[in-house]
Amino acid sequence: MKSRILLIDDDPLILKSFKLLLSHEGYEVIPTSSYEEALRAFEEKQFELILSDIRMPGKNGVETVSEIQSQLISAGKGELPIIFITGYAEYGDQLKAEFIGEVLTKPVDTEKLLTTIRDYL
Ligand SMILES: [Mg+2]
């Protein structure tokens, strides 16, 4: 079965290009552009990994992912691996300490992204 990835980014070009790239690699990708959309997708489907932007209008990527993780914990399920994508490298170490996963910096190296995803799936 295909691993399903929840993709969160307010930039439509990122959603489009990552969906294309990852679908081509055999993943099922559900693109969402806000906290609300991501939470709705999370309620409807089961995911194996989250790939998320950090800076977004409204609730940011960290708040969105934290909400999803706390719902998983409340439901007695394990946390999902997270890969954050950010233009701001200074977030890196702090986020790595808080979440299971990685922080990649924009512009994202495609090979690095695919290798990182493969490490978790
Ligand atoms: Mg953004």
What does this structure look like?
The protein is α/β, with parallel strands linked by helices. 45% of the residues lie in helices and 21% in strands. It has 5 helices and 5 strands; from the N terminus they run βαβαβαβαβα. It has helices at residues 12-24, 35-44, 61-74, 92-98, 110-120, and strands at 4-8, 28-32, 49-53, 82-86, 101-105. The chain has a 5-stranded parallel beta sheet, with helices on both faces. Helix 2 (35-44) runs parallel beside helix 3. The termini are close together. The mean pLDDT is 92. The structure holds magnesium ion.
Brief overview:
The chain contains 5 helices and 5 strands; from the N terminus they run βαβαβαβαβα. It is α/β, with parallel strands linked by helices and 121 residues long. The mean pLDDT is 92.
Helix content: 40-55%
By oligomeric state, this entry counts as single chain
Number of strands: 5
Ligands (ions, cofactors included): magnesium ion
Distance between the termini: 12 Å
Main sheet: strand order: 2-1-3-4-5
What overall form do the CA principal axes indicate?
Answer: globular
Q: Biggest sheet: strands, sense, closure?
A: 5 strands, parallel
What is the arithmetic mean of pLDDT? 92
Total DSSP helices: 5
Strand content: 15-25%
Order of helices and strands: EHEHEHEHEH
Give me the secondary-structure category: alpha/beta
- Rg over CA atoms: 13 Å
Identify low-pLDDT runs.
none
Secondary structure blueprint with pairings:
Blueprint: E1 4-8, H1 12-24, E2 28-32, H2 35-44, E3 49-53, H3 61-74, E4 82-86, H4 92-98, E5 101-105, H5 110-120
Parallel strand pairs: 1-2, 1-3, 3-4, 4-5
Helix pairs in contact: 2-3
Magnesium ion binds next to loops.
